[in-house]
Amino acid sequence: MRSILLAAALAALSTPAFAGDELMANFFGNTAVATGGLADTHTYYNADHTFTMTAPAFGKEWKGTWKLDGNTLCRTYETAPPGVQNPLCTPVEQHKVGDTWSLTMDGKTRTVTLVKGIQ
Question: For the whole model, what pTM was predicted?
Answer without folding.
Answer: 0.80
